[in-house]
Amino acid sequence: MSNPQVHQFTKDKNHPWDRLKTEQYIQFFIDRNFVSLDCFHGAIIEKSSNKLIGLAGLNPYKENEPEIEWKLGVTYWNKGYATEIGKEIISEAFKTTNITGIYGMAEPENIASRRVLQKIGMKYLGINEFRDQKDAFYYIGRLGL
Ligand SMILES: CC(C)(COP(=O)(O)OP(=O)(O)OC[C@H]1O[C@@H](n2cnc3c(N)ncnc32)[C@H](O)[C@@H]1OP(=O)(O)O)[C@@H](O)C(=O)NCCC(=O)NCCS
User: Fold this and answer.
1) Which residue has the higher pLDDT, 38 or 9?
2) Where is the N-acetyltransferase domain (predicted)?
3) Residue 121's pLDDT is what?
4) Atom 17 in ligand 1: which residue has the minimum CA distance?
5) Staple partner for 117: which of 6, 97, 126, 138, CB 3.0–4.6 Å?
6) Residue minimizing CA distance to atom 27 of ligand 1
7) Is the minimum distance from the CB of 115 to ligand 1 under 6 angstroms?
8) Nearest to 52 by CA among 88, 12, 22, 14
9) Which of 93, 77, 75, 86 has the alpha carbon at shortest distance from 118?
10) What pLDDT digit, counting tens, does each position of 71-126 carry?
11) Which domains, from first to last, does the chain contain?
């Protein structure tokens, strides 16, 4: 999270994280002790190396319709990991919670993120306002619609 490249298409684009912010972030989610998948952040562990390589989760957005998010270390990009975990989050969240749909937002220039949102079966809805900027919106409903 200290690498500015990770944040180049996110709201933290000029603010790479320092150690303190990273520790506070991890502590926040440990304290929340999530027991449900409708809103959570988790670590991404690479199975082959057993290394912590990023985070993924569902952020609150609309009622029963959270927003999916991922951030991976740069050396782990383009190995299909975000696609693998995104599909799994969608499947498990629909199986184990009452959410009705999941949104995905990406800066229009964030080609990798938009490609992943497409690959995990989300439908493109167009450009809309999100957190004071224009983002490309994607969505998948419980029945895959
Ligand atoms: C977005 C992100 C999570 C994607 O993770 P990833 O594990 O690399 O994604 P995948 O490997 O599953 O898929 C990436 C896809 O984007 C494509 N891609 C990546 N960069 C691209 C580019 N510059 N132009 C065109 N396609 C590109 C890859 O080829 C791949 O598609 P393909 O399978 O059809 O070839 C990762 O790049 C990341 O952490 N970025 C920084 C944080 C971020 O922007 N997060 C998203 C918003 S919160």
Assistant:
1) 9
2) 1-144
3) 97
4) 112
5) 138
6) 112
7) yes
8) 22
9) 86
10) 999 999 999 999 999 999 999 999 999 999 999 999 999 999 999 999 999 999 99
11) 4-141 (3.40.630.30)
Measured from the CA of 82, which atom of ligand 1 is nearest?
A: 7
* Contact indicator for 56, 89 with CB cutoff of 8 Å: yes
Tokens encoding 107: 């800066």
Nearest-Å Rg of the Cα atoms of the chain is: 15
Ligand 1 atom with the shortest distance to the CA of 105:
47
Task: Establish whether residue 70 lines the binding site of ligand 1, counting it when its CB lies within 6 angstroms of any ligand atom.
Answer: yes
Identity of residue 75: T
Percent of residues in the chain assigned helix, strand, coil, to nearest 5:
30, 35, 35
List of residues 6+ apart from 69 with CB closer than 8 A: 41, 55, 56, 57, 58, 59
Question: To which residue do tokens 């740069």 refer?
Answer: 74
Determine if ligand 1 sits within 6 Å of the CB of residue 113.
yes
